[in-house]
Design brief:
This protein has 223 residues and is of the alpha/beta class. The chain is 46% helix and 13% strand. Bound molecules: zinc ion.
Protein backbone atom coordinates (compact mmCIF):
# COMPACT_ATOMS: atom_id res chain seq x y z
CA UNK A 1 0.00 0.00 0.00
CA UNK A 2 1.26 3.37 -0.91
CA UNK A 3 1.21 5.95 1.84
CA UNK A 4 -0.62 9.14 1.06
CA UNK A 5 1.61 11.95 -0.17
CA UNK A 6 3.05 13.89 1.61
CA UNK A 7 4.54 11.09 3.65
CA UNK A 8 5.05 11.20 7.41
CA UNK A 9 8.01 8.84 7.45
CA UNK A 10 11.11 9.32 5.34
CA UNK A 11 14.56 7.90 4.83
CA UNK A 12 17.19 10.19 3.32
CA UNK A 13 20.33 8.71 1.75
CA UNK A 14 23.36 10.47 0.32
CA UNK A 15 27.09 9.93 0.24
CA UNK A 16 29.41 12.06 2.38
CA UNK A 17 29.62 15.40 0.58
CA UNK A 18 26.11 15.12 -0.91
CA UNK A 19 24.61 17.71 1.43
CA UNK A 20 22.17 15.08 2.70
CA UNK A 21 22.33 16.01 6.37
CA UNK A 22 21.79 19.71 5.74
CA UNK A 23 18.81 18.87 3.56
CA UNK A 24 17.43 16.53 6.24
CA UNK A 25 17.74 19.29 8.86
CA UNK A 26 15.90 21.73 6.63
CA UNK A 27 13.08 19.26 5.91
CA UNK A 28 12.89 18.73 9.64
CA UNK A 29 12.64 22.36 10.60
CA UNK A 30 10.33 23.46 7.76
CA UNK A 31 7.96 20.50 7.70
CA UNK A 32 8.12 19.17 11.25
CA UNK A 33 9.98 15.90 10.78
CA UNK A 34 11.85 14.64 13.83
CA UNK A 35 15.35 13.67 12.70
CA UNK A 36 16.52 10.24 13.75
CA UNK A 37 20.28 9.75 13.66
CA UNK A 38 21.61 6.57 15.20
CA UNK A 39 24.99 8.15 15.98
CA UNK A 40 23.34 10.89 18.04
CA UNK A 41 21.07 8.39 19.80
CA UNK A 42 24.06 6.21 20.68
CA UNK A 43 25.91 9.19 22.16
CA UNK A 44 22.81 10.25 24.10
CA UNK A 45 22.39 6.72 25.49
CA UNK A 46 26.00 6.74 26.67
CA UNK A 47 25.49 10.09 28.37
CA UNK A 48 22.39 8.77 30.18
CA UNK A 49 24.36 5.74 31.41
CA UNK A 50 21.22 3.62 31.56
CA UNK A 51 21.26 -0.13 30.93
CA UNK A 52 21.27 0.40 27.16
CA UNK A 53 23.89 3.15 27.29
CA UNK A 54 26.27 1.05 29.36
CA UNK A 55 26.09 -1.83 26.89
CA UNK A 56 26.62 0.56 23.94
CA UNK A 57 29.62 2.04 25.68
CA UNK A 58 31.11 -1.39 26.38
CA UNK A 59 30.97 -2.28 22.68
CA UNK A 60 32.50 0.98 21.57
CA UNK A 61 35.23 0.76 24.22
CA UNK A 62 36.50 -2.47 22.67
CA UNK A 63 36.48 -0.90 19.20
CA UNK A 64 33.50 -2.98 18.09
CA UNK A 65 30.64 -1.74 16.00
CA UNK A 66 27.43 -1.56 17.97
CA UNK A 67 25.60 -4.78 17.01
CA UNK A 68 22.30 -4.53 15.17
CA UNK A 69 20.15 -6.01 17.98
CA UNK A 70 21.30 -3.18 20.24
CA UNK A 71 20.62 -0.60 17.52
CA UNK A 72 17.15 -2.15 17.18
CA UNK A 73 16.50 -1.89 20.91
CA UNK A 74 17.67 1.72 21.00
CA UNK A 75 15.57 2.74 18.00
CA UNK A 76 12.51 0.94 19.29
CA UNK A 77 12.75 2.79 22.60
CA UNK A 78 13.09 6.07 20.71
CA UNK A 79 10.30 5.43 18.20
CA UNK A 80 7.87 4.47 20.97
CA UNK A 81 8.46 7.74 22.80
CA UNK A 82 5.54 10.18 22.79
CA UNK A 83 5.35 12.64 19.91
CA UNK A 84 7.02 10.44 17.29
CA UNK A 85 4.36 10.76 14.61
CA UNK A 86 6.42 12.29 11.83
CA UNK A 87 10.05 11.40 11.42
CA UNK A 88 12.97 11.14 9.08
CA UNK A 89 15.84 8.67 9.24
CA UNK A 90 19.17 10.28 8.39
CA UNK A 91 21.80 7.58 8.01
CA UNK A 92 19.68 4.51 8.76
CA UNK A 93 19.65 1.79 7.49
CA UNK A 94 23.44 1.91 7.23
CA UNK A 95 23.98 -1.70 6.11
CA UNK A 96 21.90 -4.32 4.32
CA UNK A 97 21.72 -6.09 7.68
CA UNK A 98 19.72 -3.15 9.03
CA UNK A 99 17.14 -3.22 6.23
CA UNK A 100 15.11 -6.00 7.91
CA UNK A 101 15.37 -4.06 11.19
CA UNK A 102 13.52 -1.18 9.60
CA UNK A 103 10.95 -3.55 8.09
CA UNK A 104 10.53 -5.05 11.55
CA UNK A 105 9.78 -1.62 13.02
CA UNK A 106 7.23 -0.90 10.31
CA UNK A 107 5.35 -4.10 11.16
CA UNK A 108 5.71 -3.90 14.91
CA UNK A 109 4.97 -0.20 15.32
CA UNK A 110 2.50 0.15 12.46
CA UNK A 111 4.00 2.75 10.17
CA UNK A 112 5.32 2.68 6.64
CA UNK A 113 8.23 4.58 5.13
CA UNK A 114 6.49 6.79 2.58
CA UNK A 115 9.60 7.80 0.67
CA UNK A 116 13.21 6.77 0.31
CA UNK A 117 15.17 9.72 -1.06
CA UNK A 118 18.58 9.37 -2.65
CA UNK A 119 20.49 12.65 -2.94
CA UNK A 120 22.63 11.44 -5.82
CA UNK A 121 26.13 12.85 -6.23
CA UNK A 122 28.92 11.05 -8.07
CA UNK A 123 31.89 9.70 -6.15
CA UNK A 124 34.18 12.15 -8.01
CA UNK A 125 31.99 15.20 -7.28
CA UNK A 126 31.73 14.24 -3.60
CA UNK A 127 35.52 13.92 -3.34
CA UNK A 128 35.99 17.30 -5.06
CA UNK A 129 33.55 18.91 -2.63
CA UNK A 130 35.09 17.39 0.47
CA UNK A 131 38.70 18.08 -0.43
CA UNK A 132 37.83 21.68 -1.38
CA UNK A 133 36.80 22.68 2.14
CA UNK A 134 39.05 25.15 3.91
CA UNK A 135 38.94 26.68 7.37
CA UNK A 136 40.73 29.68 8.87
CA UNK A 137 42.84 28.68 11.90
CA UNK A 138 42.47 32.19 13.37
CA UNK A 139 38.80 33.19 13.05
CA UNK A 140 37.22 29.84 12.12
CA UNK A 141 35.66 31.14 8.87
CA UNK A 142 34.92 28.35 6.41
CA UNK A 143 35.46 28.44 2.68
CA UNK A 144 35.18 26.15 -0.28
CA UNK A 145 37.52 26.31 -3.25
CA UNK A 146 34.59 25.82 -5.65
CA UNK A 147 31.47 26.89 -3.76
CA UNK A 148 32.74 29.76 -1.62
CA UNK A 149 36.34 30.71 -2.50
CA UNK A 150 38.28 33.36 -0.57
CA UNK A 151 39.14 36.56 -2.48
CA UNK A 152 42.81 35.57 -2.55
CA UNK A 153 43.56 31.87 -3.03
CA UNK A 154 44.13 30.03 0.28
CA UNK A 155 44.03 33.29 2.33
CA UNK A 156 41.32 34.27 4.83
CA UNK A 157 39.28 37.33 3.78
CA UNK A 158 38.95 38.45 7.40
CA UNK A 159 42.49 38.33 8.73
CA UNK A 160 44.90 37.23 5.99
CA UNK A 161 45.71 33.92 7.67
CA UNK A 162 46.67 30.97 5.48
CA UNK A 163 43.69 28.61 5.22
CA UNK A 164 43.88 25.01 6.32
CA UNK A 165 42.10 21.79 5.52
CA UNK A 166 40.13 20.14 8.28
CA UNK A 167 41.93 17.20 9.82
CA UNK A 168 39.39 14.71 8.53
CA UNK A 169 39.44 16.08 4.99
CA UNK A 170 42.67 14.38 3.93
CA UNK A 171 42.38 12.53 0.58
CA UNK A 172 42.79 9.20 2.40
CA UNK A 173 39.96 9.86 4.86
CA UNK A 174 37.69 11.32 2.18
CA UNK A 175 38.31 8.33 -0.09
CA UNK A 176 37.74 5.92 2.79
CA UNK A 177 34.38 7.46 3.65
CA UNK A 178 33.32 7.25 -0.01
CA UNK A 179 34.34 3.60 -0.12
CA UNK A 180 32.24 2.84 2.96
CA UNK A 181 29.27 4.39 1.19
CA UNK A 182 29.98 2.47 -2.05
CA UNK A 183 30.32 -0.81 -0.17
CA UNK A 184 27.48 -0.50 2.35
CA UNK A 185 24.92 2.05 1.17
CA UNK A 186 24.86 1.51 -2.59
CA UNK A 187 23.44 -2.04 -2.18
CA UNK A 188 20.70 -0.60 0.07
CA UNK A 189 19.77 1.94 -2.60
CA UNK A 190 19.61 -0.84 -5.21
CA UNK A 191 17.43 -2.88 -2.87
CA UNK A 192 14.84 -0.13 -2.36
CA UNK A 193 14.92 0.85 -6.02
CA UNK A 194 13.98 -2.73 -6.83
CA UNK A 195 11.57 -3.48 -3.95
CA UNK A 196 9.84 -0.13 -3.47
CA UNK A 197 10.22 1.68 -6.82
CA UNK A 198 7.02 3.72 -6.29
CA UNK A 199 8.46 5.12 -3.04
CA UNK A 200 12.05 5.55 -4.19
CA UNK A 201 13.09 9.01 -5.36
CA UNK A 202 16.44 9.95 -6.86
CA UNK A 203 17.23 13.66 -6.64
CA UNK A 204 20.16 15.05 -8.65
CA UNK A 205 22.39 16.31 -5.85
CA UNK A 206 24.86 18.03 -8.17
CA UNK A 207 22.57 21.02 -8.68
CA UNK A 208 22.88 24.10 -6.46
CA UNK A 209 21.68 23.32 -2.90
CA UNK A 210 18.57 25.46 -3.29
CA UNK A 211 17.50 23.48 -6.39
CA UNK A 212 18.19 20.15 -4.67
CA UNK A 213 15.92 21.21 -1.83
CA UNK A 214 13.16 22.48 -4.14
CA UNK A 215 13.15 19.27 -6.19
CA UNK A 216 13.02 17.16 -3.04
CA UNK A 217 10.11 19.13 -1.59
CA UNK A 218 8.18 18.76 -4.85
CA UNK A 219 8.96 15.05 -5.19
CA UNK A 220 7.56 14.49 -1.69
CA UNK A 221 4.43 16.45 -2.45
CA UNK A 222 5.23 18.90 0.37
CA UNK A 223 4.79 21.94 -1.87
ZN1 LIG B 1 40.21 34.21 9.37
Amino acid sequence: MREKIPPNHLVVFGRPGSGKSTLAERLGSEFGYTLIRTGELLRAAIRRQDFLGKRVEAHLATGDLVPDPLIFEMLEQHLKAPGMQKFLFDGFPRTMGQVPLLEGFEKKLGFQIGAYIDIAVSHAEAVARMTGRRVCPICGATYHLIGKPPRVAEICDNDGARLEKRKDDTPEVVEFRQKIFDDYAVPILRYYQEHAPERFFVVDGEQPLEAVYAVTVRALGLA
